[in-house]
Amino acid sequence: MDFTFTEEQLLFQESVRDFLFNEVTPERIRASWQSDTGREHLLWQQLTDLGLVGMTVPEEHGGLGMNEVDFILLAQECGYVALPEPLVHTALVAVPLLSDLGGELAAQWLPKIAAGQAKALVGLEQNLLVEDAHVADLLLLQRGDAIYALTPEQVSLRHNESVDPSRRLYGVDIPADAAPAVTGDIAVDLTGKTLNRGALGAAAQALGLAQRMVDMSVQYTGERQQFGKLIGSFQAVKHHMANVAVALEYAKAPVHRAAYSIAMDEVRAGRAVSHAKLVACAAANLAAKNSVQVHGAMGYPWEVDLHIFMKKAWALANTWGDAGYHKARVAQYIFSDEAQLGAVGTFS
Amino acid sequence: MKLSFSAADEQFREEIAGWLRDNLCGEFEEIRFRGGPGDEHMYVEERKAWEARMHRGGWTCIGWPREYGGRAASIEQQVIFNEEYARAGGPGRMGHIGETLTGPTLIAFGSQEQKQRYLPGILRGEELWCQGYSEPNAGSDLANVKTRARFDEDSQQWQISGQKVWTSLAHESQYCFVLARTDPDSVGHKGLGFFLVAMDQPGVEVRPIEQLTGTSEFNEVFFDEAVCSAQDIVGLPGEGWKVAMGLLGFERGVSTLGQQMLFQNEFDEIIRVARENGAAQDPAIRQRIADAHVGLRIMRFNSMRMLSGGGDDGSLQKEAMIYKLYWATWHRNLGKLAMDILGAESEILDAGPYELNRLQSMYLFTRSDTIYGGTNQIQRNIIAERALGMPREPRG
């Protein structure tokens, strides 16, 4: 039993953290809100050069062949800066789905993705809309028990505004005569796996978002004075942050456990993922609520950066299965015949 | 990262499971699943006998080093031990304070003489301990203890006078570790000593406190020139706070596992009731059950993350610090969930006088969880100030 990460994994996390923190600033995110696509080719190239974009692409297709455990700490760092680029989506959702689909599709697209020359984005019916479909070179779309692999020319996109200005969301219409890549049990199985991976990515980013909001709030309440004292010294203020700290710290192990569960292809990975998604998104939403509160009136202006992170947390909580969906999945397990409750079964 | 047990670990599992099968039966059948939190006053004699049986099997103090009679069990083995113990319905351990608090404290801070004198009694499950920390005016502000320890030159002994309160199992214990002031002019955490005091002596009086459960696990303990030999201070006079805090660190270590397994048994009981009375069909209840299940898994994973050295990834080692707040709040919510699953029936007692059923007793007991061992409010102060580095609140 070992719940730790390797020295190598931690060092890589650190270098990615430094890069993202310096490059993906709130100013740059605000600038992206005004741009046509909201995405930057240069940044994507930099992420590619760092090895992040192709990290989970199998080695035979030009990637690093790493797994969810290797990527999970990096996904947290993406959350910490509220990275608008679809990096987590690529590494944790699109690439594994393409790898699973295999064959010609994987051989054609994975090398291009690893080289930063193409983007593939995934749309499940569980999510209302497809994020970043406007910059996709390939769309992997699930409808019922079919998965389609289509280029943007083959579909029509309808833009929708998101509460999070960093997110670009699209309804995608598939023409009636389009042929699915896979159907039936295989498609259903892949849909389930894809949902789990998407939820894992959202959960990991939620951890980073929560940490960012805690850091901002601790800093602010350590500078702002009222009644001649730092407001962070007041219990009514600091208890808000202590509650977030507990929720956040305790959400980490379930997220790491879920990453491991998916990487090992465990049969009950779905349950581990639901745990992770529920608690990580709850932590991020609590961080958002309490951070806005302890910022006082300074939590409310558009110019203050807090809402960049708050809105991303909100959006992530409702994608790849919202809290109701994941709780229902856990409850269904508890009351099922296969449930292994009881004291034994620490890793069941 | 490797989240599974090895073949050797599984072999260890066979061993303890087999031993429990062969021993937790017959005369001990009636104490299965009994004597846990909120039920600690039950089957005391039977549970003492069980401690002796545990010792004969070599299953007390398994985490202690071999030189003190333990098995030097690995973290994995201790996880497995606790899993199997709870699965078999192992009763609440009478010796848990000695095994998980006194023992590790003496091993870390005690003299050779103290180790030789006190560890064997704990190991055999014969000598029980209680904790003399809180006082009427030293609760959240623990450093405000007023109990005095005076070294009497004539008898060459310490004399202890003062009052402790909320002392669990004091009426069953042979010894109490007492935090007392060695320097009468000192204030706060300076000038304290950590004493090993025999309970069976004229200067010690124990008075039970009846709780809102109608039972008495806690006591008041009065010391009136109670004696304690010169050898029975752990560390030097003035070092008591360091020892007392070291002890609290052990409270948050491996001993958390056993507690979680008891929680798991309670949770399973709640699920059983929910299935039986139909509450399991109520979507709101199902969501809360899912939440409780997730919370339980969180505690388990975090204990193991902490114990395997995780959580050191650039962030603070907060697990130990935040555990109390988390489990206490979770358990209180579980108690409320149990009552909501019982519905109107939750009000009805099994029998008089004031005979609570297990879930009612659990619910009422959980109201103390968020208070004893540091209230939620104090925990939040500590987390905010030490883990997050927020400014300290002004204190008188």
Structure in words:
The complex is a heterodimer of chains A (348) and B (396). By secondary structure, chain A is of the alpha+beta class. Chain A contains 11 helices and 9 strands. Chain A has a domain at 186-334: Butyryl-CoA Dehydrogenase, subunit A, domain 3, CATH 1.20.140.10. In chain A, the strands form 3 sheets. Chain A has a 4-stranded mixed β-sheet. A 3-stranded antiparallel β-sheet of chain A has the order 2-6-5, with no helix packed on it. Chain A is globular and about 70 Å long. In chain B, helix 8 (283-307) packs antiparallel against helix 9 and helix 9 packs antiparallel against helix 10 (358-369). Residues 311-317 of chain B have low confidence and may be disordered. Chain B has 396 residues and is α+β, with helices and mostly antiparallel strands. Chain B starts with 6 loop residues before the first helix and ends in a 9-residue tail after the last helix. Classes of the chains: A alpha+beta (348), B alpha+beta (396). Chains A and B meet through helix 1, helix 7, strand 9, helix 8 and helix 9 of A and helix 3, helix 7, helix 8, helix 9 and helix 11 of B.
Describe the structure concisely.
The complex is a heterodimer of chains A (348) and B (396). Chain A has 348 residues and is of the alpha+beta class.
Name the descriptors.
heterodimer; A: 348 residues; alpha+beta; Butyryl-CoA Dehydrogenase, subunit A, domain 3; 4-stranded mixed β-sheet; 3-stranded antiparallel β-sheet; 11 helices; 55% helix; 9% strand; globular; B: 396 residues; Butyryl-Coa Dehydrogenase, subunit A, domain 1; Butyryl-CoA Dehydrogenase, subunit A, domain 2; 4-stranded antiparallel β-sheet; 8 strands; 45% helix; 13% strand
